[in-house]
Write a structure and sequence with these properties.
Elements: H1 3-11, E1 16-21, H2 25-36, E2 41-47, H3 50-60, E3 64-67, H4 76-86, E4 92-96, H5 100-110, E5 114-117, H6 122-133, H7 141-162, H8 168-178, H9 183-190, H10 194-207, H11 213-227
Parallel strand pairs: 1-2, 1-3, 3-4, 4-5
Helix pairs in contact: 8-10, 8-11, 9-10
Length: 228
């Protein structure tokens, strides 16, 4: 039986075993009190630095590690990478004073499954633990919105560059869509059949990787407004 299976079997009907990795004794004590106050969680150990954390992981086999980024000797980010290499299936949640805008993505890339700042309410910390243990990624709502905006902006940049893939006629149809023209109007202006214009719409949708007719219209209007 591998470690992941053993952990899953142990979790069935038992309390979640958590290892706290933080170099501040008061922070560890406060987090321990919070965790021990939850019926489904317990603290199986504590560590103040990377070396003792790796030793504790090997001997205690926790279900989750909560890691601070500021540790003596080795940074929390480097420790997360080491843990990921040695204990690939172990979920990790970063609990840190550092601004999530600067460090959340780095922590997730390193191998953590969640990031929460220490000033968050205690119920948010417990929520983050449960989300990570459920196999989800946890970051704040603000961080999630920021990431989604960046993804949307990246998609739009990709689509702008994809405009070069359109044929001259497809680009002409796309521009007329952006001007608010209907399929019938475009067909009349270009002296083409409605069926042909619909075919061009389909080509545009596929080449720009758009999901449907409404998104073609939205993106065409957006591009027209930016160019005007």
């Amino acid at each position: 039986m591998n470690k992941a299976s053993a952990r899953a079997n142990r979790l069935a009907g038992s309390r979640l075993r958590i290892l706290i990795i933080d170099d501040h004794p008061i922070a560890r004590q406060g987090l321990r009190l919070l965790i021990e106050g939850a019926e489904d969680m317990s603290v199986c150990g504590e560590a103040a630095d990377a070396d003792s954390a790796l030793d504790a992981l090997a001997s205690l086999t926790p279900d989750l590690a909560i890691v601070d980024l500021s540790l003596r000797g080795k940074s929390g980010l480097e420790l997360i990478k080491d843990i990921r290499n040695r204990h690939r299936d172990l979920p990790m949640l970063v609990l840190s004073m550092h601004d999530e805008n600067m460090y959340a993505e780095r922590a997730l890339r390193a191998g953590a499954r969640g990031y929460i700042m220490k000033q968050e309410a205690t119920d948010k910390i417990l929520l983050a633990i449960r989300k990570v243990m459920a196999g989800e990624i946890y970051v704040s709502e603000a961080m999630t919105s920021r990431a989604l905006r960046r993804l949307a902006a990246a998609a739009d940049r990709s689509r702008r560059s994809s405009l070069e893939l359109l044929s001259d006629r497809e680009l002409e149809v796309f521009q007329l869509i952006g001007q608010g023209k209907s399929t019938r109007e475009i067909a009349r202006l270009l002296h083409l059949s409605i069926k042909t214009i619909d075919a061009y719409r389909g080509h545009i949708k596929n080449k720009l990787n758009l999901s449907g007719r409404n998104e073609v219209v939205r993106f065409a209007i957006q591009m027209t407004m930016e160019q005007s």
